[in-house]
Amino acid sequence: MKSKRQTFVTLLLLGAVVVLIGLWISRRNSVAIPSKGEWWAIQDATILSMDPKLPESFKGTVLCRGNTIVEVGARLKLKEDVRVVSGLGKVLTPGIALAGTRLGVVEISLEGSTKNDAMPSKEPLRPAFRVFDGFNYNSSLIPIARVEGITSVMVQPFGGLISGQSAMVDLFGHSEQMLVRSPLAVHAAIPSGRSAFAWLKLRQAMKEAKLFSMYSSQYQRRKLRKLHLSELDLEALSQVVKRKIPMVIEVNRAADIRTALRFADEYNIKIVLSGVAEGWQVGTALAQAKVPVLVGPPHNLPSRFDRLGSRYDNAALLHQAKVQIAFSARGGAHNIRAMRHEAGIAVAWGLPTHEAIKALTSNVYSFFGLDKRYGSLQRGKLANMVLWSGDPLELSTRALHVWIRGKEVPMVSRQTLLRDRYKNLKTLFRLPNQR
Q: Which residue range forms the structural domain that includes residue 354?
């Protein structure tokens, strides 16, 4: 009798422990919904949510409160106090998020005083350089990108072998309000030609960073051998060594892509590859290593020798090999709005439409660990959304409404203001004797 009672008590305690663990896990994974803020919704839209638990496309409603998505579904019942935006006949997607831009750090490409994307130095190793320090939230190029459905961008440094540290920003607000994360990643670029020497310099830098991260106290007491990199450079690279942030390496030649995989394995670091013009040749190796890639606009006419294997279906072949892909503007600032059309070209060459939209919206966030709050239309995610007039990958489609962190942004840019100013030429240039 006593043993039965002990068994019952034991089972009861085990059950209580299981329940408590379940409650702890659910609370840990739950996302806080704002207790204050306006209720609003986009109703009857064709929703491309990028949520793997939902159909790829369905007609439904997205309910939000303040800056956060509260519910997504096909048959949501809305209360009377909810402000409704009609999405009938329109397409709703997460906002476009692009990697590899110079947005906010380059205003006029041919005017050096408007460029903050690189250090004015011949020093090839610049890991401490933080590009966000030069970010201009008043750039006239930001509204031009924003009214075309681009809600977030990676602002990337350029120049040298190691260019510096990038940042992710939302395209609405003032300066620090726009910042999502900085540093986001450390960036390196393997040049066309002399790539073996470039890998040597990268290995030297990583070895010093590893030594610094292991013996930082000895370094501060000057009991460590002299290192070539500065303390700030070593601190930046030590974040990569500790796997806190990834290193984005721009490579195009298939041989250099394989070297990059060996390099990451050698130093046990997280990497994201950019460019990858010949990536289709090593898709299996990339998939096995679980290394994501940022593909640029498709080309089939190589501009350099490390891109001889360029082809239009590069993105499609990488996807077939089960490589995670996202689209990169490859340093663009002025015409990055064209990237959704480039994604449409990738679809024409075999990339599934759903995967192309994922590569424009959600994948960049997942590459850099920001997908808990960004990238899809799901409960608890920030309301970065675009309501389109039709298929987002079609040339004729326009962004009708854009929301960033739940705020509907004005669909006004320098270009729209110039259009409105000069659209009625007869009135503008009427001669004095004309009535």
A: 96-372
